[in-house]
TrEMBL record:
It comes from Corallococcus terminator. Keywords: Signal. This is Lipoprotein. Residues 1-18 form the signal peptide.
Length: 256
C-alpha cells in the first residue's frame, strides 16, 4: 500500500478523484500552441548566446547543427509552458493566477487517503496541454527520436535501466500491483541522440509552481524509495545520462 500511495501521490491521474476532465476545445487549443509559439521563437532564435540549451547541453548544437535551431527549440518549448499556464488559468481562474490559499485548497483524496490539492490538479491539467504542444514542436524541430512520458525501471546499484511499455504500465496499475513500479521514473520528455531509447541527450520536465511566485523544483524522493536522498533531476541524469532541466512558464532551470 505504501508503494501505491507514493505512485498515486506522484501521479494524481492514478486516482479516480484526480482524473482529468478537459473538454475538446481546451485540448484542441494545445494543438495550436506550436503555431502561437512561433512569434516568441522568432525573437528568441537569434539570441544564440543566451540559449540555456547550448550552454548546458552542447550536444544539442551537434545534433541540430545551428545555434538558431537550438534557440528556436528552446523558445518554442518555453512557449508551450506559457501557453499551458495561460489556458489553465483562463479556464479555472478567469485569466488570473491562483492565490496561495487557492493552490493549497484540498479538492479530494486519493485511494490512500492523501489530499489532492488544487495545485496538484491544476498542474496535471496544464501538463496535458504542455505535452501536447511539445509533441508538435518536437515532431517539427527535433532531428532524432524522442520519448514523452516514458516510464523506466531503474536499478541504481546494478546501474541497469529498462523501459516499461505504456500497456504494461497500465496493466500493472489496473491490477493493483504497483510494487512492480517501485523505484521507476517517468520524465515528461527525453530527447535521444539515436535509436537507443535508454540514453538521453537531454531530459525535460514541465513544472507549474502554484502559486506562480514559487520557484520550480525537482520532487525529492522519500526514505522508502531506492532513490532516497536524491531528487528527480539527479536520478534522471544517473539513469539516462545527459542533462536534466525544468521548464516553467517563467524560466528554465538546470539540474546541478
Amino acid at each position: 500500500m505504501g508503494v501505491a500511495c507514493a505512485l498515486l501521490t506522484a501521479c494524481v491521474s492514478g486516482s479516480a478523484h484526480g482524473a482529468l476532465r478537459l473538454d475538446t476545445h481546451t485540448v484542441g487549443n494545445a494543438r495550436h500552441a506550436a503555431a502561437l509559439a512561433e512569434g516568441i521563437s522568432a525573437q528568441g532564435a537569434t539570441r544564440a548566446g543566451a540559449s540555456i540549451l547550448v550552454q548546458y547541453a552542447p550536444i544539442m548544437l551537434a545534433l541540430m547543427q545551428s545555434h538558431n535551431a537550438v534557440g528556436e527549440l528552446e523558445e518554442r518549448l518555453k512557449a508551450c509552458a506559457v501557453h499551458a499556464d495561460q489556458q489553465g488559468n483562463a479556464r479555472f481562474f478567469n485569466n488570473r493566477p491562483p492565490t496561495r490559499a487557492e493552490c493549497l485548497e484540498e479538492l479530494a483524496q486519493d485511494e490512500c487517503g492523501r489530499p489532492i490539492t488544487r495545485a496538484m490538479r491544476l498542474g496535471q491539467q496544464k501538463h496535458v496541454l504542455a505535452l501536447e504542444c511539445a509533441r508538435e514542436v518536437l515532431e517539427e524541430l527535433w532531428p532524432a527520436p524522442f520519448s514523452i512520458e516514458q516510464r523506466y525501471r531503474f536499478y541504481p546499484t546494478a546501474r541497469f535501466v529498462e523501459t516499461i511499455s505504456p500497456e504494461k504500465e497500465a496493466s500493472i496499475i489496473a491490477q493493483g500491483c504497483t510494487e512492480q513500479l517501485w523505484g521507476s521514473i517517468k520524465p515528461d520528455i527525453v530527447l535521444h541522440t539515436d535509436r537507443n531509447l535508454l540514453k538521453a541527450a537531454l531530459t525535460l520536465d514541465f513544472k507549474f509552481p502554484c502559486p506562480d511566485t514559487n520557484p520550480p523544483r525537482w520532487t525529492p524522493y522519500g526514505d522508502s524509495s531506492p532513490h532516497a536522498g536524491k531528487d528527480q533531476g539527479g536520478v534522471y541524469k544517473e539513469a539516462l545520462g545527459g542533462r536534466a532541466m525544468m521548464i516553467s512558464p517563467r524560466e528554465i532551470v538546470v539540474s546541478p
